[in-house]
């Protein structure tokens, strides 16, 4: 049994975490370009200057003048600006992916490379040509591009001018962008996703909104869902043989105790993910979400055909990230620990990573089973991995056995979900297949890759690529379709 012969083994990255070259060839600024470096003790900050020279940081984003187009504050360091310079190293990097035997490469397009402000009628040809070159390089080696349209980086101009996705105009700009890249790459890309981790409500980065009140956020989420549905319909019309999915962050939760209150709290937690899946896979707003908005006094403004658009724009598969599980309880006195885009209650039955994330391979099987039992569409694990500090030995070798152990246990859990639970699993693209800027902290020292990149937390280094022990291990896993794992 095991994985199908056409299983999509590969790796995953995001444009804002690898490309660098943030102002080259006409690229415009994104919301992610305003995010500074941080670490485990000091969270990343959103900071930039408006054209009026006003410095805006986090809670003061509400003071951005209407219509301002921001520029970056030179006194801060922004990791996305250089990242690992994939923009100039893509041929070398894709050749290394091919050496591992990748069947797929999950990546994203930087919206502002195509439309620098998001509002242009005509696209930036230099940006389009770059991705043509990247896709051609992948296809040369038989690697299928799996492309995310928007990975936490909407045009900064749309955030400043339209308050991002709180405005209906932003739907139209996104759909124009989606249509442009669908038409351009229809013969090169057969797997697409709309918004990365759409349930992770990073209001400024993902949606470009300020202020961040519940009503504004709910309206922006609705517009995101409509925009996604419209993109799905466009993809189906323009590329009939393509598959397009959504992308969510999935962290299964366990009730901390058998108390009914904890069980109900667990249901409430799960609905934070199921809402997005219900809308994007089933095509309708669930009753519990309308009841939540009613309790909060939120009235969504909808166009007459919004619900019909959502119903017609159901995705073909579910793409998701899995790094950890969490717990649910009503006991607020229990301390929390960091997790993937969340604070999490520590599970006493699990070990944690250097960054405090629960290590739970069985949780991946649970996640796969929960989603497949509820939605009955193919699943695609498009992010999974271990962030850790790697040590380069004197001879240049990197012995990341901890990463191998993590991936080994998770792949075997995936196989159990397929063999024992009957899950339809399309593929597996571990996160950060090459070292990149860690989204959670902005650090380079929190490394995920099979390929080491010599660059530090301040963007300094030779940018030389080298293979870790896990590189050779993963190459064997792909070559044997994981049948070598016992």
UniProtKB/TrEMBL annotation:
Its EC number is 3.2.1.-. It is an enzyme of class 3 (hydrolase). Gene3D superfamilies: Glycosidases (3.20.20.80). The active site is at residue 383. The keyword Ribosomal protein does not apply. Pfam families: Glyco_hydro_1. Belongs to the glycosyl hydrolase 1 family. This is Glycoside hydrolase family 1 protein. It comes from Streptococcus caprae. The lineage of its organism: Bacteria, Bacillati, Bacillota, Bacilli, Lactobacillales.
């Amino acid at each position: 049994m095991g994985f199908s012969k056409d299983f999509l083994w590969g790796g995953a990255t995001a444009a804002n975490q690898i490309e660098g070259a943030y102002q080259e060839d006409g690229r415009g600024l994104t919301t992610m370009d305003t995010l500074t470096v941080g670490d485990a003790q000091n969270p990343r900050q959103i900071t930039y200057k408006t054209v009026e020279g006003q410095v805006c940081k986090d809670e003061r984003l509400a003071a951005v003048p209407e219509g301002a187009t921001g520029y970056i504050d030179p006194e801060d360091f922004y990791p996305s600006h250089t990242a690992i310079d994939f923009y100039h190293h893509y041929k070398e990097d894709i050749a290394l992916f091919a050496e591992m035997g990748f069947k797929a490469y999950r990546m994203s397009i930087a919206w502002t490379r195509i439309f620098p402000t998001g509002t242009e009628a005509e696209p930036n040809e230099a940006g389009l040509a770059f991705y043509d070159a990247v896709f051609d390089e992948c296809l040369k080696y038989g690697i299928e591009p799996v492309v995310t349209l928007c990975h936490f980086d909407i045009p900064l101009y749309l955030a400043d001018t339209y308050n991002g996705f709180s405005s209906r105009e932003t739907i139209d700009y996104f759909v124009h962008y989606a249509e442009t890249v669908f038409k351009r790459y229809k013969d090169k890309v057969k797997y697409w996703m709309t918004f990365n981790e759409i349930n992770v409500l990073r209001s400024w980065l993902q949606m470009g909104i300020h202020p961040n009140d519940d009503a504004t956020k709910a309206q922006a989420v609705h517009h995101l869902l409509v925009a996604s549905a419209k993109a799905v319909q466009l993809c189906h019309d323009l590329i009939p043989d393509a598959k397009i999915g959504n992308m969510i962050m999935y962290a299964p939760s366990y009730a901390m105790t058998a108390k009914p209150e904890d069980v109900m709290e667990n249901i409430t937690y799960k609905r934070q993910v199921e809402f997005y899946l219900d809308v994007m896979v089933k095509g309708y707003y669930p009753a519990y979400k309308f009841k939540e908005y009613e309790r909060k006094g939120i009235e969504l403004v909808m166009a007459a055909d919004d619900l019909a658009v959502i119903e017609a724009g159901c995705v073909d598969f579910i793409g998701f990230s899995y790094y950890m599980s969490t717990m649910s309880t009503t006991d607020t006195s229990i301390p929390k620990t960091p997790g993937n885009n969340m604070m999490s209650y520590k599970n006493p039955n699990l070990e944690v990573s250097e960054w405090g994330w629960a290590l739970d391979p069985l949780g991946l099987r649970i996640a796969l089973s929960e989603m497949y039992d509820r939605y009955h569409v193919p699943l695609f694990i498009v992010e999974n991995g271990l962030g850790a500090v790697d040590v380069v030995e004197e001879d240049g070798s990197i012995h990341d056995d901890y990463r191998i152990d993590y991936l080994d246990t998770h792949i075997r859990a995936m196989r159990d979900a397929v063999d024992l639970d009957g899950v339809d699993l399309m593929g597996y693209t571990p996160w950060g297949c090459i070292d990149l800027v860690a989204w959670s902290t902005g650090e380079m020292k929190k490394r995920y890759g099979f390929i080491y990149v010599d660059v530090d937390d301040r963007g300094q280094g030779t940018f030389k690529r080298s293979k870790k022990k896990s590189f050779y291990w993963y190459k064997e896993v792909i070559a044997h379709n994981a049948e070598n794992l016992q």
